[in-house]
Write a structure and sequence with these properties.
The structure holds two protein chains of two kinds.
Chain A (H helix, E strand, L loop, with lengths): L1 E4 L2 E3 L5 E7 L9 E6 L5 E7 L6 E3 L7 E6 L4 E6 L8 E8 L8 E4 L3 E5 L2
Parallel strand pairs in A: 2-11
Antiparallel strand pairs in A: 1-3, 3-8, 4-5, 4-9, 5-6, 7-8, 9-10, 9-11
Chain B lengths: L3 E4 L2 E4 L5 E7 L4 E2 L4 E2 L1 E6 L6 E5 L3 E2 L7 E6 L2 E6 L8 E7 L6 E2 L3 E5 L1
Parallel strand pairs in B: 2-13
Antiparallel strand pairs in B: 1-3, 3-10, 4-5, 6-7, 6-11, 7-8, 9-10, 11-12, 11-13
The chains are: A mainly beta, B mainly beta.
């Protein structure tokens, strides 16, 4: 199970930190991703982090503003989002990879948390 | 980035009939060293997160009904749903994981005729 939290309404330019807590599997055996979906729109990959945080990547649209991290002792992955823009408004899904490296095979998805960026 | 393009954007199929959704990538997602196509299909029902149906273009995920099948290689792929059921109403996405960033098609909405 993957449970996201931390979403909400935020003003443009402000920050928000999303959390995702995992259960039911050995968390540090798998890479994790964040994928977002604007309301009524398609899917956009945001970031990934490998099992040991050795491999991290970001979509160009969030590079330099978002930071992904994980704490294997807490079975959690985080997404620090700074300098938020209205176009960042979306449901943010925490997604488990099939393997430890960030291959991009999305195995299991959380229910998502909604981030709304608006003045 | 690899661009994924699905067709059609939407389709309506009668119960019990076959539905086919196409996906085309802007470059090959076939990795020559292992002869695998890095292509997945997902199903998203209203109000739910996506659920994986197929990896490697044609390998059905455990628990996915046999009426779902994937085919294709290189740049052209198809998801086929045989004997359409009412619970198959959803949006379907293809996704490549050949390169970073992984990218999705725009989605195909499947409805009952």
């Amino acid at each position: 199970q993957l449970v996201e939290s931390g979403g909400g309404l935020v003003r443009p330019g402000r920050s928000l930190r999303l959390s995702c807590t995992a259960s039911g599997f050995t968390f540090d055996d798998y890479a994790m991703h964040w994928v977002r979906q604007a309301p009524g729109k398609g899917l956009e990959w945001v970031s990934h982090i490998s099992w040991n945080s050795g491999a991290i990547a970001y979509a160009d649209s969030v590079k330099g503003r978002f930071t992904v991290s994980r704490d294997n002792a807490k079975n959690s992955v985080y997404l620090q989002m700074n300098s938020l823009r209205p176009e960042d408004t979306a449901f943010y899904y925490c997604v488990k990879d099939k393997i430890a490296a960030a291959e991009g095979r999305f195995d299991y998805w959380g229910q998502g948390t909604l981030v709304t960026v608006s003045s | 980035d690899i661009v994924m393009t699905q067709s059609p954007d939407s389709l309506a199929v009668s119960l019990g009939e076959r539905a086919s959704i196409n996906c085309k990538s802007s470059q090959s997602v076939l990795y020559s060293s292992n002869n695998k196509n890095y292509l997945a299909w997902y199903q998203q029902k209203p109000g739910q997160p996506p659920k994986v149906l197929i990896y490697w273009a044609s390998a059905r995920e455990s628990g996915v009904p046999a009426r779902f099948s994937g085919s294709g290689s290189g740049t052209d792929f198809t998801l086929t749903i045989n004997s359409l059921q009412a619970e198959d109403v959803a949006i379907y996405y293809c996704q490549q994981y050949y390169g970073t960033p992984p990218t999705f098609g725009q989605g195909t909405t499947l409805e009952i005729k």
